[in-house]
Amino acid sequence: PAPPRFSGGGSAPLGSVQPGSVMGWAVLLVVAVVLVPAAASWVPSAEEELQFKAWMLQHNRRYGPDEYPHRLRVFLGNKRRIEEHNAGNHSFQMSLNQFSDLTFAEFKKLFLWREPQNCSATKGNFLRSSGPYPASIDWRKKGNYVTPVKNQGPCGSCWTFSTTGCLESAIAIATGKLLSLAEQQLVDCAQAFNNHGCSGGLPSQAFEYILYNKGLMGEDTYPYRAENGTCKFQPEKAVAFVKDVINITQYDEDGMVEAVGMHNPVSFAFEVTGNFMHYRKGVYSK
């Protein structure tokens, strides 16, 4: 038989051998031997897959064949952290929820405000007394003063719910009438006050908007859509108004105690950390 021919460069003709090609295949085979077992080492149990599929059904999730194993792994990692937390001695409990297929980085990108604003750190104008302050207070137990918890959905509008929740309680304490106010109006209309709809904002700016805009509509006439939209405010349908906005100085915990204990529930913002993503109940502590 004729000896093998070596090509001088470019692509090799079928049946020829290039210098170094045998070594190249040897390296590839070694890499394959190392990588394949590593990729195949993680196999979820049948019970874990059933739990994940039940969660998918509950939250109406669907994934393609490439995304499914990644989301399953993320879900099981979150589930393990929740179980470890709940087995410890903590003041609050965690549980699976609609965010359990997300990493915290994904959750943060989708739902949290990413740019700190200096107005939250400026000195407030709340003049507190020297006490005495109540040892504890729960406005839910004092009367019909607190609206049910709402869901902001896939929109970074937490600032609007903090605003309406505080204002709803203040109105109920003052008038005895508990309203459900329009977060969507704040999402759509408060941009001139350094708010950014589903991309975040601050309750202090939202209160300023309501004050100078001459009112906020109810949720029944301006329903929540969890997305940015054009402003549809109708002044004649406004049901809530703000006479003044009082800010509590940052880190003034006594000021917050007095405001809540002597006046009404307040609106505040804090930096969300990973374990708050699956908060269920109890007194949250970082």
TrEMBL record:
TM spans (from-to): 22-43
InterPro entries assigned: Papain-like_cys_pep_sf, Pept_cys_AS, Peptidase_C1A, Peptidase_C1A_C, Peptidase_C1A_papain-like, Prot_inhib_I29
Domain Peptidase C1A papain C-terminal: from-to ranges: 133-286
Domain Cathepsin propeptide inhibitor: start-end pairs: 52-107
PROSITE patterns reported for this sequence: THIOL_PROTEASE_CYS
Keywords assigned: Disulfide bond, Hydrolase, Membrane, Protease, Thiol protease, Transmembrane, Transmembrane helix, Zymogen
Identification of the protein by name: Cathepsin H
Lineage: Eukaryota, Metazoa, Chordata, Craniata, Vertebrata
